[in-house]
Amino acid sequence: MPKSSIADTTAGFEYVFPAIRGVQARREFFVSMCPLRLIPRLFLFDEDELAPELRAQRVLNKARIPALTSYILDNPDSYVFSALTASVDGEMRFVGISDEGPGMRIGQLHISMAARFLINDGQHRRAAIEAALNENPELGDETIAVVFFQDAGLARSQQMFADLNRHAVRPARSIGVLYDHRDERARVARLLALKSPVFRGFVEMERSTLSARSNKLFTLSALYYATRSLLQGVELTGEDQATKVAGAFWSAIDELIPEWELVRQRKMTAAEVRRQYLHSHGIALHALGRLGNALLRESIELAFWRPRLEPLGKIDWSRANPDWEGRAVVGGRVSKNHSNVVLTVNYLRQRLGLELSPEGAHIEATYLGGER
C-alpha cells in the first residue's frame, strides 16, 4: 500500500509509549520499554535489494539469527539484550506528566500510526526476537529498551549507523571466556588456569594477545580453544570429570616440554620461551588439544593414552626448526589459520604414528604439492 494510503487510513490513530525525554547534540530523543511482541510489527530494516548507498544500515546477516535466537530460548531467565535504536519517519509528540521540573522529562510519547520506524542499530536482535517469539509466544510480554530519534533523512540515518558502530569494539576473547558461566568448557578452562600446577600464574586472563615482555606463557582464550578441542565428542559424565581428564592431559604434556618447567623455576622467562619456542603459542596448544582428542576418543584411561604421547618429548619445538615453516610458521611469523593448525596437527600425528584425518590428508597433500 502506498505511504499516502496508509496515512489516510491511520489518520487520528497513534501509538502511545511511556517514555523518558532526553537531549543529545541539541536533538531530542526518547527512551521507552516496548513489549517484545511489538518489535517485529513496528520496526523495519532496509530491503536487501537496495544499493548500499541508499540504505541506512548493513544488510541483515541471516546466518547470525539462529545463534541469537537460541541464546534467547536457551536462557529465558538470564538473557540480556541492549537497547534498539530507531528513527521515526513521522509525527512524534511528547507529553510530560508536568510542565516543569523532573516531570517534564517523564511522560508519554505519541507517534502517528502512519509513521515508519527504521532500526538504526539492532536489526539482528529484532530478527532474533521475531524468531524466538515464533517458538515461544510467552516471551511477548517481556520488554526491551528502545531509543527513538526523529528521522532527519537518509544522510542522518546513515551517519547515526556509522556513529553507533564507529567505536564498537568486541571484548578480547580471553575476558569473554573469563566471564562466561554458561559454557562448560569455559568453566573448565578457568579452573585449569586458576588451579592447575601447569598453568596457575602463567595465564593471561583478560587479553588474547601477549606483549613481548609479558610474564605469562599462555592466554586464557588459547587454553579454552585447546581444551575445547581436546574434549570435543569425548564421553564424559560432567564438568568435574572433564576438568580432571583435561588436567591430566596437560600435565602429561607439561612433562614432555621442559621449558614450561624452567619458566616456573624462574630459570627462563616466559618472554624468552615464547620468542624461541612454538609450544606456548595458541596454534601449538590447539594442535596438541586436537591430537589428544584423537586419543581420548579411543579411551580416557590415562594408562592408554599417556605412553602414546612419549614421542612428543623428542620434538624440536624451537621456532628455528625448518619443519615448522609452512606449517605453524609462515615467513617467520606464527600463523593461526585453520590450515596451519591442521598441518601442525598432521606433524604431531605423524610423530605419534597416527593416521591423518580425511581433512588432514587433503590439506597435507596440498601442502606437499606446493613444496615441489
TrEMBL record:
Identify the InterPro entries for this entry. Answer: DGQHR-contain_dom, DNA_S_mod_DndB
What organism is this sequence from? Thermomonospora curvata (strain ATCC 19995 / DSM 43183 / JCM 3096 / KCTC 9072 / NBRC 15933 / NCIMB 10081 / Henssen B9)
Xref: Pfam families: DndB (PF14072)
Organism's domain of life?
Bacteria
Q: What's the protein name?
A: DNA sulfur modification protein DndB
